[in-house]
Specification:
By secondary structure, the chain is mainly α. The chain has helices spanning about 20-25, 30, 40-45, 55-70, 75-100, 125-135, 140-150, 175-190, and strands at about 155-160, 165-170, 210. The chain has two domains: about 10-115, Histone Acetyltransferase, Chain A; about 125-210, no CATH class. A three-stranded mixed β-sheet has the order 1-2-3, with helices on one face. Helix 4 packs antiparallel against helix 5 (about 75-100). The relative contact order is 0.11. Mean pLDDT is about 80; it is low at about 105-115 and about 190-210. Keywords: Bromodomain, Transcription, Transcription regulation. This is Bromo domain-containing protein.
Length: about 210
Amino acid sequence: MPGFSLHFNSHSEPFRDAVDWESLGLYDYPQIVKRPMDLGQIKRKIEKEEYASVNDAANDVRLVWQNCKTYNADGSDFYNLADTLSTKFEDKFAKLLKELGLEAADGKSGAGGAGTSEAKEPSLEDKKLFAKRLYKISKEDLGKVIIELDSICPQAITKNSAEDQVEINVDNIDAESFSKVMQFVATCVGADGGTRRKKSSVNTKNKKARTS
């Protein structure tokens, strides 16, 4: 993976190693963070050339910030630090893509021009519309949304085995993933926004899905 390397600065120290949730007494951490990731692990994978592309490595870096923001309260020191480092990383990564003449994971060119814009952060109205549309799609399509989010944005999915329930936390869906699932849901609902199923059929087999 030529051109991609990971350099640590003093501010990244909390993210260099895996979260030792047992020693810290953070017993809910495994339930909230579904796919742990840390910068040290990413650096080792880069050195061993385990990533197929720079985009794969970048996605793991993004996961580090997203995991922190998912677990910690909005406005907390750790949340703000992750947000700041995320912004700095995206700026540097965009420059790297431009230098290498590569494309971002969403297929947009990193070489400048109209195609360089990142996925737009969803507004509150976008999130409300997404949640509303989830109640209009078929149980099969709802299952596809859950499977897709569990794959590309696991921090947005909370599974409660005791109640056999799956919760979609819209606030935890990153912009790129939101754009992808929103397009799918919009297609399922149709241009007229018509209901394709009764609201009572939210359950997929014995699974319940709800948004928050």
